[in-house]
Sequence to fold (676 residues):
Amino acid sequence: MRFLLRRLQFYIVAFIAALVTVFYLPRLLPGDPATAILAPMGSRLTQAQIDALRKALGLGEEPLWKQFASFVSHLFRGDLGVSYSQFPTPVTDVIATSLKWTLLLGLTSLLLSVVIGHLVGIMGAWRRGGLFDTIVPPVSNFIGAFPAFFLALGVLYFLGLKLHWFPISHAADHSIPPGFTLAYIGSVLRHLAMPMLVSVLVNLQIWIMTMRNSMVVVLAEDYITMAEAKGLTQRRIMFNYAARNAILPSVTGFGIFLGSILGGQVLIEQVFSYPGLGFQLVRAVGARDYPLMGGLFLAITTGILLVNFLLDILYTYIDPRVRRQ
Amino acid sequence: MDDRSTPLIDIRNLYVEYLTNRGPVRAVENVSFAVKSGEVFGLAGESACGKSTIAHAILRVLRPPAVITGGRILYKGVDVLGLERTSPEEYRNKVLGGVTRKGIGSSAELIERYRWAEVSMVFQSAMNSLNPVVKIVHQITDVLMRHLDIDRAEARRRAEELMEIVNIDKRRLEAYPHQLSGGMRQRIVIAIALALRPSLMIMDEPTTALDVVVQKDILQQIDQLKREYGFSILFITHDLSLMVEFSDRIAIMYAGEIVELAPANEILNNPLHPYTKGLLASFPSITGERVKMSGIPGAPPNLLNPPAGCRFRERCAEWTGVDIPRSPQLQEVIPDHFAACECKYGRADHA
Fold:
């Protein structure tokens, strides 16, 4: 418990640091929302008109620290402001809708790659140097070596444009009303297929390698030999003795990944026009949409911190050595 | 060996090699010995001479690159190396002898049934032979439930009994290995080794990682348990003084071969092989006068390419200058006392 409280302190400090950063960082970008919004109109606008828009958006009115104070006070009332580029949608609404899609894509692909990766890693290490071990891990490594956007474009081109197996953009068919209907869920899954496939392909090798190498080390431990000498079944040794220990490093990796699914799929979401957090983030940056950018950054960092805290808790369960009496 | 009954475990001409990129390392070469019922048989020799490899071979837990390239290991007359080809009936008759164990269906299963139920082992480092992320209780009950037809509650009750036998508070069953001291962990490993009342317990340096006081304590406990349950012990160590005190008979190994085999007091008082003499000379006597320890000059040969003939020749203080073309064979120099030193004792053409 003491351990967790100490960790909690750390997370609070990190959160405060994140607040400061998400507020100031977007404002350091060259240009401002007014020029971005008015850019399509080119030079037909007078300086007075631009200034009027600035004023309307509340830019440059007050010193930055005052803006920051009001940002924080609004934040604690659950108000992140209104998006400039998707005016007048509140930032929280934009985040809520896009978070849903990011979580769907991120969690399913993470889960899939973790499960497949670990099984492959366990099998590979168990029959080290066998046929399976000499083919599967290197192939996954080869695929994983491609940049995510390249794989995404490849999949988009072949499976989407050439073979027409899956729809090439958006998260669901707009003609089907959202709801718990078979048609809608089917549509969501079909839209999910390609981005998920790419995400799994990109990440699979990391899990395979982590687990396989960790297994190889654990398999050399005395307690594995002892488990074997005890006449336990191969399955029990493989999972309860070897994998149970070998999985510990993966849990840390899992935390890092779980955090990164919130903001780490920018490229994949972009290629498939999948309306998740990453997709919104690129749009917000392009439009210099300060409130939306800040909100998205904040959502992503908070998510990462939260996930890490949960993992600290989880870790104390699976590795008794972390616990303090 | 004068025993007319079949020995408990009979190792005949065992060869084990480690296959490396540079060629096979001949770790165990033509080793034969037998352990009788109720006997403590010591296997001594310096590190890397093949002691543990033999122990692992007996339990069939050698893993690649180690391969058994020759010989037989007979346990109660059943060839352990051929368990896959042994019929369950034969196993039941010869090994179990009426004792009921959890279902033995196929030959393929025999090896897992043989392990621990017949021969258990206390591994070299107690620190590392317990699974760090599993509670002690489950590490005891899993082996009980694997081999005996009992339920979880009964397994737990027996685990508590075992803890009592090795003098550890049964509340410690809920602990994880890292929460226990080295001595406790070793005791628990011994408790696990006792769990199925095996006929043979292999102790591979059971006390090396412990200090002298705990060491003594644990050995006394093992001795007492042995008296009580009557199992045999194959005791492996490089600590010859400890071994002499503890064993009935001792085999001295050098570079993968047994060079001398005799009752413990014979080894101590009348060593025949020059290597044994060297080993004994490198242990100080507590009661005797202060003498300079001599040790044995040189190092053991590389087993990747061992010299033909006597492997100890290079380091031997008593080499007579006679070249022995092939490995010296163990021969009974005096009754019950075997040595493999042909340049001193000649060659008995008994083979």
About this structure: The longest helix of chain A spans residues 182-219.
